[in-house]
């Protein structure tokens, strides 16, 4: 359900690349040319989305 751009930035920030490279906001901004603020906002929005979905799943599991 996430836009590919949001999903990929989130994955790079939290999990790094396949070769093990990890990123800070600044290093990811330097690599991609995307502003640090934009990356921060995207990562924050994806985290909120994931939290919302987890809460929905928990509520459904409590009902069942």
Provide structural commentary.
The chain is mainly alpha-helical. It is built from 3 helices and no strands. It has helices at residues 4-15, 25-32, 36-63. Helix 1 crosses helix 3. The model has no long low-confidence stretch (mean pLDDT 93).
Strand and helix map with partners:
Layout lengths: L3 H12 L9 H8 L3 H28 L1
Helix pairs in contact: 1-3, 2-3
The percentage helix is: over 70%
Structural class computed from helices and strand pairing: mainly alpha
The low-pLDDT segments are none
Order of helices and strands: HHH
Tally of strands: 0
What profile does the largest beta sheet have?
Answer: none
Radius of gyration: 14 Å
Secondary structure tally, helices? 3
User: What average pLDDT do the residues reach?
Assistant: 93
Tell me the distance between the termini: 24 Å
Question: Per the principal axes of the C-alpha atoms, what is the gross shape?
Answer: elongated
Classify the beta-strand content into a percent band.
under 5%
